[in-house]
Amino acid sequence: MATFPGLIGRPLSKESVEERQMDDDLCLFDVENPESSVHILNSSAAVVWYLCDGEHEVESIASHIALTFARPYDGVLTDVRETVDRLHRLGLVRLQ
Predict the structure, then answer these.
(1) DSSP strand E in the chain: where?
(2) What is the pLDDT of residue 1?
(3) Which CATH number is correct for 14-95, 1.10.10.1150, 3.40.50.300, 3.40.50.11540, 3.40.50.2300?
(4) Is the pTM above the cut of 0.70?
């Protein structure tokens, strides 16, 4: 099982990241970083993105998603941790 030691705190999306909806996907681009790539999130990852508001810890994001979509919490928590970790490594969210 993977561990995510850096995921302590509440993820907050970077203000300079622009969003564009394209069909079922959400496209993200950091307008302050000219070397940034366009990042495409599927609908599940987009839900995580929208909850990266600085108000929710990773566990509460997972709990919200598990309850909303009637999914097992443990599996959702792993997916949320992986998604937030990736968004963090890409510089799209920070942890506060």
Answers:
(1) 11-13, 17-22, 25-30, 39-41, 93-95
(2) 41
(3) 1.10.10.1150
(4) yes
